[in-house]
Specification:
The chain is of the alpha/beta class. It contains 16 helices and 31 strands. Strands 1, 2, 3, 4, 5, 14, 15, 16 and 17 form a nine-stranded mixed sheet that branches. The chain has an eight-stranded mixed sheet with strand order 20-19-24-23-26-25-27-28, with helices on both faces. α11 runs antiparallel to α12.
Amino acid sequence: MAIELSELRRAVDAAMGRRPGSLLLKNARLVNVFSLSLQHTHILLAGRLVAAVGLEYAQAEAEQVIDLEGRWVAPGLIDGHVHLESSLVSPAEYARVVVPKGVTGVVTDPHEIGNVAGVAGIEWLMEASEGLPLEVWVTVPSSVPSTPLETSGARLGLAEIERLLAHPRVVGVAELMSFPAILAAEDGELEKVILAERLRKSPEGHAPTLTGPALQGYLATGIASDHESTTLEEGRAKLEAGCFLMVREGSTTRNLAALAPLLRPEHADRVGLVTDDRLPSDLLREGGLDFLVRKAIALGVDPAYAVRAGSWNVARHFRLARRGAVAPGFQADLVVLDDLPSFSVAQVYQRGRLVAERGRMCVELPKTRVSPAVSSTVRLPALQPSDLRIPAGVGKVRVVRAIAHQVLTAEEHTEPTIRGGEVVADPSRDLAKLVCLERYGKNGQIGKGLVTAFGLQKGALACTVGHDHHNLMAVGVSDADIVTAARRLEALGGGMVAVAEGQVLAELALPIAGLMTDEPLEAVDAKLQALEAAAKALGVNLPDPYMVLSFLGLAVIPELRLTDFGLVDVRQGAVVGLFVE
């Protein structure tokens, strides 16, 4: 929303004492993100703006006066990189959970719904996030599809990206994930950077494991940020190369502890906090960006700098005017805290109005309207167990090793178990079949391979959340159960299921693009817990197995992945055979 002349006049008049402010917060301990000081002061609001901050405002006139009695005040937190779809719920439901925790803004990359439903899907998400007590800014997905080695539901070219960049809530071009294409200086990728800069938007990065000449070449394009660092050395190299370092703590990708030593005041505005992907259970039990601030402080980060990395630094990076601080002229997005180190939230103000108190929303949220553009997106071919057969070959086979709490995978080579002239799953060796089914009704392609580290002993798990193409991903030791799981997901319109001996043991329907639901987050969490319990009963010993499964098709992060095209060696950027030559 643009600032009106009347609002500026009101703020100036309140600061100068010519008219009352709307709210005076007396006796606050302000977290000043500019000076990194913790100061006793008074805060005067005028509508949705902060009019003044200072000890001289102790007796200022205001329509409402609240004595905070020494409680802390911090700016509302801004998550610098998140995929709202990964919460599995609507934007309104996401806001209901994170706003009472002190999050008043997010920068979302609607890459997931963009891969399913294209421009129409992205526009639906922007419409669904209007009018919330949570500001939702958008970066336009740059990689739809992420690679040419997968089938997605839509494609976004330069024309579509330029059209979306014109929206006032769009602040950048989202993570440019095809780093092999960028390092090869392919025109199509470099043009996206130029387009972003021409329109004064930020070109965002995605550079997992890149260091040395590869990192230099990637950043030579002018790409501004990265959120994929997993080690201290990698993070430091990116900071020293001028990158805006996004320190991530998601559900699967937990990198904060490794990178915490870089959250230091001398790095000024070059470090920000992001969640990327957080599951309902973590949002409910740990929190959103507030959890990162709390954990950073517990790891020894200066509390004021931890808050700054979750507010002002992100706002500055994305040129979010009047956001990220509690200071004159800034939008009055602020959090009242009972305790700073634990980031214990008492009240949340957004645009100068009280929107949450003691963990509950104080305002009504708009209803979510589901459009046809994001409905009925799961269309599978006729499928039989025989379609999943893997003919026997000669030599060892490539196996995808899943890694707990990481997006990275490893490639292993092993002797296959062969029965009846085909490669089969072997629970005794922790070898399960991994399948990717094209789910948009375009070509019916089926990618097949093997995966280890799940521990699955019987049955199958499947989901239509399959980054980034969001085809149907399944892991199983029974081809018949994989087919049963796939058919159930088609009937649900997408989601997650656990199946054994032809019976559905647990399920979660995600009918919005096969990615989301408008159910309450608590209900979604309960169904996820049932799914995890079912997976455990089937022998799975991997934490967050559905989250891990959803990333096994992500063909832009090393090492070995599976798409509907087959096994993909990410470093080579090529489809490879199951059998090692």
